[in-house]
Amino acid sequence: MKSVSFMKNQIVPRDYRQFLADIQQLLRQARRAAARSVNAVMTATYWEIGRRIVVYEQKGEKRADYGEELLLKLSSDLTGNLGRGFSKRNLEQMRLFYLFWPLKGISGTLSRKLPGLLVPEIAQTLSAQLDFPLSWSHYSRLLRVKNPQARAFYEAECLRGGWSVRQMERQIDSQYYERTALSRNKAAMLTKGSRAMAGDAVTPEEGLIRHLESFLMELGGHFTHADAGQML
């Protein structure tokens, strides 16, 4: 193909549009892969933090307020050393995440090899070793569902129907589990509930931005400034 100057108002080669479309598609695929990778590492890390908190609590004093004091102390120290994202509430969510999904963690073989230890060398294999098919945003919302049966129901339906966080939130707020349990035609209710509404959808690019922003902010300023450049 002849060399063409892409100055304003000049003719663009006929195949340029396809060339541009191919590159844009490549970038979209890379962004989707990056979002999945970020989510897998973030979710696995939060589960592991929750596990370590529970294990540490079990070794500590048997006082009712010991757990509260531990989370306050840990929150203060992590925030001071690593920055924002480690509030007591966030740490409590990680603790509950482990308690509600205790069997979702590292495989038995890996646990035996690395008891209580998660080293950087295996970080890239987290998504293969851990079973967290939903995003952290999904799990953090499910943590607020107190009924274990309802929580399991929403998790299963979310996986079956590919619900976005917005769609799951809407179904929980509308008491979809309770309405389905009371319905005489449960199959019809499940079919109806699986339909997404206009406000439920989030594009891959929007989802990526939200995941990355949330991930970097929650890991704290120390990570974003000291380590972010090494990821790119």
Commentary on this structure:
The protein is mainly alpha-helical and 232 residues long. The chain has 2 domains: 14-132 and 203-232, no CATH class; 133-201, no CATH class. 67% of the residues lie in helices and 0% in strands. It contains 13 helices and no strands. It is flat. The two termini are 34 Å apart.
Shape: flat
Beginning-to-end CA distance, first to last residue: 34 Å
What is the beta-strand fraction? under 5%
Number of DSSP helices? 13
Count of discrete domains: 2
- Mean pLDDT level: 74
Order of helices and strands: HHHHHHHHHHHHH
Biggest pleated sheet: none
Number of strands: 0
CA-based gyration radius: 22 Å
Low-confidence stretches: 107-129, 218-232
**Helix-strand makeup class:** mainly alpha
Helix % is 55-70%
List keywords for this structure.
disordered C terminus; 67% helix; flat
Question: Can you give me a brief rundown of this structure?
Answer:
With 232 residues, this protein is an all-alpha fold. The chain is built from 13 helices and no strands.
Describe the secondary structure blueprint for this structure:
Blueprint (H helix, E strand, L loop, with lengths): L15 H44 L6 H17 L5 H13 L7 H6 L12 H4 L6 H7 L5 H14 L3 H9 L2 H7 L3 H8 L10 H16 L1 H6 L1 H4 L1
Helix pairs in contact: 1-3, 1-11, 9-10
